[in-house]
Amino acid sequence: MAFNDDSFIREVNEELRSDQMKGAWRRFGRYIIVVAILIVVGTAGKVLYEYWDDNRSSSAGDQFLAAMKLADENKNDEALAALDKLEKEGHGAYPVLARMRAATVQAQKGDAAAAIAAFNEIGKDNGVPAAVRDAAKMRAGWLLIESGTYEQVSAAIEEMAVPGNAFRHSAREALGLAAYKAGNIVQARQWFQSIVDDTDSPRNVTNRAHMMLDLITASGKAPAAQG
């Protein structure tokens, strides 16, 4: 079922206006992360598609598409076996693409620890193109919001939360959510405000940042930003 970002934000804002703040993060936090991670997946997908498109070979391509189909059908073990074979025997871009997809399948299976380890390994591999390494680090960072600490999220992705980095919007949002989840409200406000202040931030990311700033202000946990 499609998830409508704008309607979700309106629902949370209505919750804020009705002063029913207690439990707002418990109710909406997981969905905020789900909605936001779509931006990461989209950006990473574009990077990986361009990498794949530049390195196509018909046989390996067919194997990769077949493995993706298995994953889409939730045949995770079969998909992992096919991706492992492609990683070992594939040519060109396909071993790297197989590693990325296999890590995603691990996450789909609910094994966040294995997925994070796999993404981190790709992120540290200097034999992998820089854009793909960054995509892997971002995926690890987003998974760590749920299962790790703010410090772990920061170590994974803060280096990308800088002007000019293609992943800066997603990195700032992930850092803001991780800080909020950790109770570091001042730091969370700073990250969300940096999204709002960046005129290049995508509209849906900016909307979610505004929503989180409203949530922080309405909760009374941090002073309103001066401006």
Quick rundown:
The chain has 227 residues and is mainly alpha-helical. Helices cover 74% and strands 0% of the residues.
Protein architecture, described:
With 227 residues, the protein is mainly α. It has two domains: 60-148, Alpha Horseshoe (Serine Threonine Protein Phosphatase 5, Tetratricopeptide repeat); 150-226. It is built from eleven helices and no strands. It has helices at 5-17, 24-53, 58-72, 76-89, 94-108, 112-123, 130-147, 150-157, 168-181, 185-197, 203-219. Helix 1 (5-17) runs parallel beside helix 11 (203-219) and helix 6 (112-123) packs antiparallel against helix 7. The longest helix is centred in the first third of the chain and has 30 residues, at 24-53. It is elongated and about 55 Å long. Residues 1-5 and 15-22 have low confidence and may be disordered. It is found in: Cell membrane. Residues 25-202 form the Ancillary SecYEG translocon subunit/Cell division coordinator CpoB TPR domain. Its main location: membrane.
Write the layout of secondary structure elements.
Layout: H1 5-17, H2 24-53, H3 58-72, H4 76-89, H5 94-108, H6 112-123, H7 130-147, H8 150-157, H9 168-181, H10 185-197, H11 203-219
Protein name: Ancillary SecYEG translocon subunit
Main location: membrane
Organism: Rhizobium vallis
Largest sheet: none
Percent helix range: over 70%
What is the highest CATH level, the class of the largest domain?
A: Mainly Alpha
What general form does the structure show?
elongated
- The secondary-structure class comes to mainly alpha
Oligomer: single chain
Count of runs of 4 or more consecutive helical residues: 11
- The domain tally reads 2
